[in-house]
Design a protein that fits this description.
This protein is of the alpha+beta class. It folds into 3 domains: about 130 residues, no CATH class; about 55 residues, no CATH class; about 55 residues. Helix content is about 25%, strand content about 25%. The chain has 5 helices and 11 strands. A 4-stranded antiparallel beta sheet has the order 5-6-1-8, with helices on one face. Strands 4-3-2-7 form a 4-stranded mixed beta sheet.
Length: about 280
């Protein structure tokens, strides 16, 4: 399922003797969350009308106020323009005005970011016609509570597949078909840790897909195998004994590099670092 941004359409009405004063409607945005490295949050706004500077903020609990000012008896087109200018100034929306009933009073509001939000509503009795033409999709937080036993993954070639036993539509699953593709659309994304297999070496010119510090260990491993083959294939006992000795030497070097000192030899492993400057005295 693709992510989608909410699109709201509002048809404004004209003011009549300050009839729109202190009236408001609610609308929700998906804004970036600066408290985390990468994330989003929903923010609710109440857009209220201050007609002729005679209004007072209705202070809707849990929402952020957006004040729209215009004169008494303003036309529907004037009201729509004033509302559009205030909303488009917010980072969470973009707006456009078009004709409705022959008058430029239809405001199309598009959320800047994808995500499911509560649809806009005329909670403050403006008389505006408010509809949602496109429902926003995408959850900000996951509702898979136990990902360690509800999600599996498998790798095939260059593709990573995620499957889950969780069904957001409460679909009944049989044990044979317990897992299926995840039907969630996450706005904040999903962090996956996995171990990939290194690239295969198929030619003598290929570079092993491992840390550079282990290249010499691979050479020791190959030499160990070659000397083992020689020891088993030669008919000379002396040559066989020498080959076994060389095999043991390279095996020891390989084991030291990989098993005994492997972690400390990795160039990407953190730890204490020291610089000893030369003595200039």
């Amino acid at each position: 399922m693709a992510l989608a941004a909410e699109i709201t359409k509002i048809i404004a009405v004209a003011d009549s003797s300050s009839s729109l004063n202190n009236k408001y409607f609610l609308i929700n945005a998906v804004n970036t969350d600066t408290t985390v490295n990468v994330g989003y949050k929903t923010v609710q706004y109440y857009v209220w009308m201050n007609v002729g500077s005679a209004g007072s903020d209705p202070s809707v609990s849990g929402a952020t106020g957006v004040e729209v000012t215009f004169a008494a008896d303003a036309s529907a087109a004037t009201v729509a323009t004033a509302v559009s200018n205030k909303i488009t100034a917010l980072s969470g929306f973009s707006t456009a005005i078009s004709a409705s009933g022959g008058v430029d009073k239809l405001i199309t509001i598009t959320n800047a970011n994808a995500g499911a939000v509560t649809n806009a509503s005329d909670a403050g009795s403006t008389g505006f016609t408010i509809t949602t033409s496109t429902e926003g999709t995408g959850q900000l937080t996951g509702n898979i509570k136990y990902p360690d036993n509800q999600i599996l993954y498998y790798i095939r070639g260059d593709h990573l597949s995620l499957v889950t036993t969780y069904s957001s539509s409460a679909e009944t699953r049989t044990s044979r078909k317990a897992y299926q593709a995840i039907d969630h659309n996450m706005v904040n994304g999903m962090l996956v840790h996995y171990y990939g297999n290194p690239k295969r070496v198929t030619a003598i010119t290929d570079t092993p897909d491992v840390d550079n510090l282990f290249h010499s260990a691979i050479v020791d491993y190959v030499k160990k195998c070659l000397y083992m083959d020689r020891a088993g294939s030669t008919g000379d006992a002396n040559r066989s004994q020498v080959a076994m000795g060389m095999m043991a030497q390279h095996e020891r070097k390989f084991n030291n590099a990989i098993k005994k000192y492997g972690n400390r030899k990795r160039s990407k492993t953190g730890g204490t670092r020291a610089i000893v400057p030369a003595n200039f005295t």
